[in-house]
């Protein structure tokens, strides 16, 4: 365990192994432990780094009044500079995929390769008419739910609404993975939950069509259809192809089917070498 001072707080990170830096960025209301299977698998061949973004896990609350994907991206840049992690491979899931997209848009020449898992470019992951999104913000209702029921129940309600829309499980197919995800949500305070949601809701993906950094886009076969559509658009922009579908997996694809996810990533990393 190690820490790095950042504006208004302290960033927690973990580093293992030697070789090409491989940096994993978790999803919303999760933490670096979500990559435990990847840390075990790749630490023998890579310098593996995981971190807890502001508001999450062991990093916890910071003094910033609001968060943004751009702020998370700047924190990642500071961490990579601190570690002297030259030309890393970046891998992000969900919110983490937004951070990797933003990093790639800002510093394409400094990244060896990028993996986008369960990738989203905007939230909600559907197209809205111009100028409408600010008026549809669920933040007031979300704040009320958090103050009356807490982060866990609020998150369950969010999952239930997605399940209603998609007709099936979305977050994970594995009850143990879902339970770990709920434990991570329980570590996030009411105030930090809102700040993280606001960062997700406000972000619109930067243009990546001109970026030539090698990229891999993956999602679970049971991923929600709107997320699959966003993944397909991202893959067309950065990988000139279609996303790789991982069987027996939903949104938390790296935890639902770590063996298949690791194999696909390993093949991609091998092409980079």
TrEMBL record:
A single MF term (Gene Ontology): hydrolase activity
Which InterPro entries does the record cross-reference, listed alphabetically?
A: AB_hydrolase_1 (IPR000073), AB_hydrolase_fold (IPR029058), AB_hydrolase_sf (IPR050266)
Keyword line: Hydrolase
Entries under Gene3D superfamilies matching the protein: alpha/beta hydrolase
Coiled-coil stretches: none
- Residue stretches making up the AB hydrolase-1 domain: 21-258
Q: Which SUPFAM superfamilies match?
A: alpha/beta-Hydrolases (SSF53474)
Full protein name? Alpha/beta fold hydrolase
Q: Please spell out the taxonomic lineage of the organism that makes this protein.
A: Archaea, Methanobacteriati, Methanobacteriota, Stenosarchaea group, Halobacteria
């Amino acid at each position: 365990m190690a820490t790095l001072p950042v504006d208004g707080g302290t960033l927690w990170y973990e580093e293992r192994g030697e070789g090409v830096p491989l940096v994993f960025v978790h999803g919303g209301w999760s933490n670096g432990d979500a990559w435990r299977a990847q840390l075990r698998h790749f630490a023998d061949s890579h310098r593996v780094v995981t971190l807890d973004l502001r508001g999450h896990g062991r990093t916890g609350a910071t003094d910033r009044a609001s968060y943004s994907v751009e702020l998370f991206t700047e924190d990642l840049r500071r961490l990579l500079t601190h570690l002297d992690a030259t030309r890393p491979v970046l891998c992000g899931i969900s919110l983490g995929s937004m951070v990797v997209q933003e990093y790639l848009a800002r510093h394409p020449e400094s990244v060896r390769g990028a993996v986008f898992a369960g990738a989203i470019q905007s939230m909600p992951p559907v197209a809205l008419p111009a100028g409408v999104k600010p008026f549809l913000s669920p933040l007031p209702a979300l704040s009320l739910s958090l103050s009356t029921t807490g982060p866990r129940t609020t998150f369950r309600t969010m999952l239930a609404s997605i399940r209603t829309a998609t007709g099936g499980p979305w977050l994970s197919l594995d009850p143990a993975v879902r339970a770990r995800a709920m434990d991570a949500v329980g570590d996030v305070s009411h105030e930090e939950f809102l700040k993280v949601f606001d960062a997700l809701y406000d972000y619109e993906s930067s243009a990546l069509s001109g970026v030539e950094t090698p990229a891999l886009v993956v999602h679970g076969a049971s991923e929600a259809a709107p997320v699959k559509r966003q993944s397909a658009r991202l893959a067309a922009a950065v990988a000139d192809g279609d996303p790789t579908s991982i069987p027996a997996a939903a949104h938390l694809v790296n935890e639902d089917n770590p063996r298949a996810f690791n194999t696909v990533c390993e093949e991609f990393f091998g092409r980079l070498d």
